[in-house]
Fold:
Amino acid sequence: MSDITAPATVDAAAPGPAPLRRSFLLDPAVLLLPVAVLLAAILLPLEPSKAFGLPAHPLLVHVPVVLVPLLAVAVVVLAVRPSWRLRYGLAAVVSAVVTMVGTILAAGAGEALRAQRSSRTGGPAGVPQQQGTGAAAARPGGNGGEGRQLAQHADLGAMLRLLVILFALALIVLVIVDRYGIHTGGRGGVLTSRPVGIALTVVVVVLAVLSLIWVIRTGHVGAQMTWGREGGGAPTGGRRPPG
Structure:
């Protein structure tokens, strides 16, 4: 009788079913990779000319000018401190995607502004129509000098756009590899090995430094163009003699 009423201790002590492990493909960093690629593909052809009723380029250009240096410095710090990268890597990836979107739009707005200026001067894009004698057209503040600066600025902006896209994608891949190593407990094979991690870190840091250099170069040429126009452009001196 006592055997019938005794509690079944064996079943109570038996372990329950193991909890289901979430697929790593649902990790936020993994999901951001195709989002970043899709955004780059969609935004690359865009050349916005207006934003809030104002010229788009002077507004959008502040995004890469501010965010690219901040992101580059942050990535270098995270490369030196890998433990911080595990903690703040996802925030860095989100910042990289925002920076990439802003840089693409700023470069596209620059192309639109370049086309508008060329249509006003009647010359090909980036090369305003030269008027007057050859000496006058070749002056640093004249149409020829401004056209060369505009073409240089556009080329630097296009290169900066490419560098920032590669920078953002490489950073996402690095963070994915880091998080995959945590997900697998360091047993992810070659993908989570130390040489692969070092190689990816070096690539990301190099792209960060190059992006920083190019945003400085692009901004420097753009500032020369802006201040040159506001300062009058043409060299000081007497009037050009008649004839």
Observations:
- Strands lie at 50-51, 54-55.
- The chain has nine helices and two strands.
- The two ends are 129 Å apart (CA to CA).
- The mean pLDDT is 80.
